[in-house]
Amino acid sequence: MNKHPPVRPYLILAVCCSSLLMVSMDVTIVNVALPAIRRDLQASASGLQWSIDGYTLVVASFLLLAGSTADRLGRRRTFQAGLAFFILGSLLCSLAPNTTSLVAFRAVQALGGAMLNPVAMSIIVNTFLDPKERARAIGIWGAVFGVSMAIGPLVGGLLTQTIGWRSIFWINVPIGLAAIALTAKFIPESKPTSSRRFDPVAQLLIVVLLGAVTSAVIEGRRLGWSAPPIVAGFVIASVALAALLAYESRRLEPMIDLRFFRSAPFTGATLTAVIAFAAFSGFLFLNSLYLQDTRGLKPLAAGLCTLPAALAMVVCSPLSGRLVGAGRSRFAVVTAGLSMTAGSLLLTTLRPDTPLVQLVIAYAVFGTGLGLVNAPITNAAVSGMPRAQAGVASAFASTSRQVGASLGVAIAGSIAGSARAAYFAEATHPVWCWSLVTARRSRPWVS
Predict the structure, then answer these.
(1) Which residues contact residue 5 at a Cβ distance below 8 angstroms, ignoring those fewer than 6 apart?
(2) Do 111 and 217 fall within a single domain?
């Protein structure tokens, strides 16, 4: 039962968006700090990949559990627990003595992150009941993501350059503590009348599937794609996927309800999210290394270079929300695909001395694509399921993003991450060609 008096919907939206600001800003901050982390901790290319993918992999693995847990135990309670874990993980990351411990502490952070954005979206969906108002709220949510993208590289660059990379994790503490207090004061507890039971077998299979395929992709180039550990990783992932599909299809209350994938809009939105975020996460990972290691820019200057991408997202995210509210989701997704294709095309000729004007244009075009695609993906996911399962619905949308982000960093790093600075720009060309092909093949199945 709701023990709080009714509050203004947009006040609830603001509190929920604070978690998005913190989590999304953290991702961009860490990307800017990667060269400094590599120098200080003597990290390898795969170590840098794991510092990003260790986070996204855990988030992707436990998002569905977090969504269903929020529907069972209460959304506000789960949201506050996520904030607490994220703060703890951030403090531990700032104390990491080596790459292994940094990856482990990032996993603690990720446990909190898994409980934040999908649960916050669930709260928003259950607050904004009118479809058009919900679409606008999702547009604002996307704009906050764009703002975090704008602030993150600048704050991360400034902190890394002046205080050191460890300070990038301190900024999460005041934001997280404020969000906990505001949640307790303004967000009422809510949960549906019925919810799904915990599914430990499916949860284990998801962890094995994502962990095996990500590990194989990250280590494949170093060990060789035909090496026994790599082949074993792909075999384990295939077996886990087959077992997951067979097991879930027989359960009365599955963690992953396969019936939802009978909907072409829902399936299309999921695949589009994987493709879009794989391209964008690979873009962030490689360009941070390119700008600082190859071009020799300071962290703050590198952050400024990526600002056009963030500003494009700030502008396009609310525009995309309005397009979704007006029933033009297909137009938004088509335009997003064209934008990311054009951005990839501009980077296929990247050189150490590529004019900054070309880089700025490419970054802005890339940001336009991601800003436009976010709202229709989220809206298609949450609109395709009952409101009583809003936690699971929003978790599906977030999981597809995180899976794409993990694969994007794994693939991009495996192709170009170990190249020397002098040859790094040329080594990224296959990544941009891959992004170009996948962006062109993504189809607007959302309605």
Answers:
(1) none
(2) no
Give per-residue pLDDT as tens, 75-98: 888 899 999 999 999 999 999 999
Q: Are 99 and 245 in a shared domain?
A: no
- Helices 131-162, 9-41: crossing angle, 10 deg rounding: 30
Q: Supply angle C-alpha 30, 154, 135, rounded to 5.
A: 85
Question: How would you write 261-281 as a 3-class SS string?
Answer: HHCHHHHHHHHHHHHHHHHHH
In a domain, 4, yes or no: no
Cβ(220)–Cβ(230) under 8 Å? Answer: yes
CATH code of the domain in which 84 resides = 1.20.1250.20
What is the reported pTM?
0.79
State how many domains the chain has. 2
* 110 and 184 share one domain: yes
Q: Same domain, yes or no, for 247 and 362?
A: no
* 56-73 residue pLDDT tens: 888 888 877 777 777 777
What DSSP string runs through 13-44? HHHHHHHHHHHHHHHHHHHHHHHHHHHHHT--
CA distance 355 to 378: 36
* Cα–Cα distance for residue pair 38/45, rounded to 1 Å: 8
- C-alpha dist (Å) from residue 279 to 318, 340, 401, 418: 21, 8, 11, 19
Task: Give the C-alpha separation, 76 to 26, whole Å.
Answer: 22
Roughly what angle, to the nearest 10 degrees, separates helices 356-383 and 390-412?
150
Cα distances from 17 to residues 25, 60, 176, 299, 406, in angstroms, run: 12, 20, 12, 27, 23
Is the distance from CB of 108 to CB of 85 less than 8 angstroms? Answer: yes
Q: Of 411, 391, 366, which Cα lies nearest the Cα of 56?
A: 411
* Percentage of the chain exceeding pLDDT 90: 14
* CA 399 from centroid of its chain's CA atoms: 8
pLDDT at 192: 64
User: Which among 20, 354, 414 has a CA at the least distance from the CA of 224?
Assistant: 414
> Of 228, 254, 280, which marks where a domain is finished?
254
User: Is 124 in the same domain as 244?
Assistant: no
pLDDT digits (tens, 9 = 90+) for 99-113: 999 999 999 999 998
Q: How many other β-carbons are positioned within 10 Å of the β-carbon of residue 15?
A: 22
Which range of residues forms the domain containing residue 158?
9-190+255-441
Q: Residues 227, 264: one domain?
A: no
Q: Are residues 43 and 161 in the same domain?
A: yes
Residue 394 has pLDDT above 70, yes or no: no
Q: Are residues 37 and 179 in the same domain?
A: yes
The two structure tokens encoding residue 330: 């297909």
Measured between alpha carbons, how far is 338 from 361 in angstroms, rounded to an integer?
Answer: 14
Domain membership of residue 372 (yes or no) is yes
